[in-house]
User: Which sequence fits this backbone?
């Protein structure tokens, strides 16, 4: 994401992180550089424990980084500063509401802290999400709880939405309702969304740019379409004793006798010719799904660390 | 510091604790009324109930208002709102202290008035020492809850305070100067009581400062 967005100097950034590191006893977030262009939807994809939540909490000012600088909506982010949170809506799957109280009580509580709270929009969201204001939180299903929390965030009309796995554990209908609402929000060019998930399909649906994160490192970051254009799976037939040629971004995924499957992270027109020069026959060049690209990126990143 | 945010947080927590607060207030008043009954057994039972209500209210309110924010994961929700750590700390510590002081002050005032009205003015002098001891125990529990964020450690401090109270009362009533004052029909303040009260007030202040400083110096809010 950074690579792409840095090239566009005229664009306004909604958020950025530079050289951000954070150490815990069993986990380390390593020198994260990350930029989020205003009016876009950025997806953060990573396996469980990759550092998505920590990255988002640092961006929200909930966790103080050991190193690096963080800013959002033109303000420096710090855990001692509250004003920066006025225009940021944060959702986490770990977040809970007060069980004995109703959705309406929570709406009144949040409303009292936000001058930007939109009563009309809150009522619309209640209706769209099929929620009832006097429902007690304790009796809500997981999907209803997620929708109630999103209602509390969206009704204050934040300029930046940081959503940490909002569709985790939801049924397809609830997931559709939430993604539809997020797509409505994206229609407003001034609003920005950072969305994390380990489900590539959810992120692919709404994201303009995608960043892969694994074991506390950003391993790949690009525009969604560029990812799909640049990443290809190449099925080849190679003679005995053939070795994978040294080519940037090329990785041997699997082999069966003389049939090999390669993945390439920077495919271009000359690649088939270059490969054929090593004495192979190309059987097929196929597009990869975002999930396949994600898995391959993670495996490459882990191999690099091990080597 | 955002006074409006602190006020909203304070009122939110006061509302959330309304049921236990009401229950402890009523139980405290009932126990205090029992102390005033002119019957030695009922007075003794009433006094035990007063102490029990004070201890139970302390651990319950700390659990409901402070520790449950970690166990129920509501702190992440609150800290995602435009609230600074300073606002949160002032709001949280002040509401926990206020909610405890409501039944504590009611029971203390009730017993002081009743003891005086019942014509035992000498007995009044031990009440501030005992009630401040209970408040000390509560403040140490509060400090432990803030620092450890652990239900287990907070309960340990409560148990230690409970045991300490028994030893404290035994020593207090065994003191010759205090024993003489209790029997007296005239209200006077022995030096030992004033010294005890001074130490208790110092412990309360230190525990409050420690809890506040630790809370506001946290680097990570969740």
Assistant:
């Amino acid at each position: 994401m950074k690579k792409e967005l840095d090239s566009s100097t005229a664009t306004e950034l909604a958020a950025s992180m530079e050289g951000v590191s954070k150490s815990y006893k069993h986990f380390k977030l390593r020198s994260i550089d990350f930029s989020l262009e205003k009016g876009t939807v950025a997806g953060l994809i990573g396996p469980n424990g990759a550092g998505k939540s920590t990255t988002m909490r640092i961006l929200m000012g909930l966790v103080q980084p050991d190193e690096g600088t963080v800013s959002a909506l033109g303000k420096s982010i710090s855990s001692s500063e509250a004003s920066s949170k006025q225009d940021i809506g944060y959702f986490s799957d770990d977040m809970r509401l007060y069980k004995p109280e109703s959705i309406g009580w929570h709406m009144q509580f949040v409303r009292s802290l936000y001058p930007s709270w939109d009563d009309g929009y809150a009522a619309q969201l209640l209706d769209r999400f099929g929620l009832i204001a006097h429902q007690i939180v304790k009796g809500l299903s997981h999907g209803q709880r997620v929708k109630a929390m999103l209602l509390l965030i969206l009704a204050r009309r934040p300029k930046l939405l940081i959503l940490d796995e909002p569709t985790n554990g939801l049924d397809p209908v609830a997931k559709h309702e939430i993604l539809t609402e997020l797509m409505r929000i994206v229609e407003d060019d001034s609003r920005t969304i950072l969305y994390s998930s380990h489900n590539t399909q959810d992120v692919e649906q709404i994201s303009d740019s995608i960043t892969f994160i694994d074991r506390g490192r950003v391993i790949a970051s690009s525009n969604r379409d560029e990812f799909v254009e640049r990443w290809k799976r190449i099925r080849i037939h190679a003679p005995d004793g053939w070795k994978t040629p040294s080519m940037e971004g090329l990785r041997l995924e699997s082999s069966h006798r003389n049939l090999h499957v390669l993945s390439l992270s920077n495919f271009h027109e000359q690649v088939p010719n270059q490969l054929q020069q090593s004495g192979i026959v190309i059987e097929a060049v196929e597009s990869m799904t975002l999930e396949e690209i994600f898995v391959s990126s993670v495996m490459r990143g882990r191999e690099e660390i091990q080597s | 510091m955002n006074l409006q945010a602190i006020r909203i947080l304070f009122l939110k927590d006061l509302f959330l604790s309304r049921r236990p607060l009401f229950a402890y207030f009523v139980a405290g008043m009932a126990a205090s009324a029992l102390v005033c009954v002119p019957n030695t057994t009922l007075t003794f039972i009433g006094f035990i109930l007063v102490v029990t209500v004070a201890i139970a209210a302390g651990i319950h309110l700390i659990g409901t208002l402070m520790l449950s924010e970690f166990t129920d994961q509501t702190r992440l929700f609150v800290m995602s709102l435009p609230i600074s750590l300073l606002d949160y700390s002032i709001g949280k510590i002040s509401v926990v202290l206020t909610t405890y002081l409501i039944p504590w002050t009611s029971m203390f005032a009730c017993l002081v008035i009743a003891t005086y009205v019942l014509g035992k003015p000498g007995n009044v002098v031990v009440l501030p020492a005992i009630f401040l001891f209970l408040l000390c125990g509560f403040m140490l529990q509060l400090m432990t809850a803030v620092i450890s964020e652990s239900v287990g450690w907070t309960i340990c401090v409560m148990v230690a305070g409970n045991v300490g109270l028994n030893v404290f009362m035994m020593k207090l009533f065994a003191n010759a100067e205090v024993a003489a004052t209790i029997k007296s029909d005239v209200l006077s303040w022995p030096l030992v009581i004033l010294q005890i009260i001074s130490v208790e007030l110092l412990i309360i202040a230190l525990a409050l400062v420690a809890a506040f400083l630790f809370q506001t110096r946290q680097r990570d809010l969740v």
